[in-house]
């Protein structure tokens, strides 16, 4: 079979989104403020927060990073959230997940002022999104929509199948695709005959958290496959099943050097042979997430300051 998929690179699209956001910021007559709150010492969270703060600075957003100790109580964190809710100079608040065990994530997220909820996780924003109203939408699925639209992939009338039903990716992805007039099916771990359903998808979104889970048999010939997954693979034999000759050597070298390589939820070797369009990991959806956070911060500021 011919290796034919067009690779939808997230890099150029993320740069375009950031450029547009920077232009919008330049003409505002106030300075935007984004505050990121991190609790504890989760290594991945530290990297994510670092990226968010750095990108804010690049685009001219005043960013603030509040780092609280791992033993912070829920009451202490809620006090910080209350202060940020009350501050007029803070347009966006992001509480980096996961939070330590003693803190109830949902309780904290509900305490955020929905107008400042740039992650789009507050029930008010979730509700608005599902009603098709203007809402701050979660950044990763919003990034998927940007990739599809800016790559000229038609969504209206197409059958979009999402594997995964999390509040962060799967469910909001379904709402956003529905808003774009796709016919949407959501699959999950209890779905029966998964392959039968996914192989009917014009647009297949994988948000599962299992490396290389989506195989050629899951994909309709000519489909667009969007891989949201981010997983580490350290087994060289497994890597040989996932990557074709254009990538394998580099991936094996990465495993050798760093102990693992980043892999999505889709088997890229097989997806490239069946799909017409495919987002790579890394270099695909992941790059859009921070860009969409910046876009949400501008949107939050415009909506809130209009009514202040
Ligand atoms: P969750 O673990 O919250 O959800 C995974 C979903 O996959 C669940 O709905 C689960 O079903 C479903 N699932 C698990 N196994 C199967 C199976 N065998 N068949 C069908 N469905 C299955 O993960 P997230 O949504 O938070 O993340 C998904 C992936 O996306 C991860 O790899 C994560 O790292 C990545 N991610 C990437 C981001 C980015 O910026 N690119 C941002 C956020 C996440 P059930 O509900 O029944 O358990």
Automatic annotation (TrEMBL):
Keyword field: Amino-acid biosynthesis, Histidine biosynthesis, Hydrolase, Methionine biosynthesis, Multifunctional enzyme, NADP, One-carbon metabolism, Oxidoreductase, Purine biosynthesis
EC number: 1.5.1.5, 3.5.4.9
Keyword hit for Electron transport: no
Catalytic activity: (6R)-5,10-methylene-5,6,7,8-tetrahydrofolate + NADP(+) = (6R)-5,10-methenyltetrahydrofolate + NADPH; (6R)-5,10-methenyltetrahydrofolate + H2O = (6R)-10-formyltetrahydrofolate + H(+)
UniProt superkingdom: Bacteria
Sequence similarity: Belongs to the tetrahydrofolate dehydrogenase/cyclohydrolase family.
Name by which UniProt lists this protein: Bifunctional protein FolD
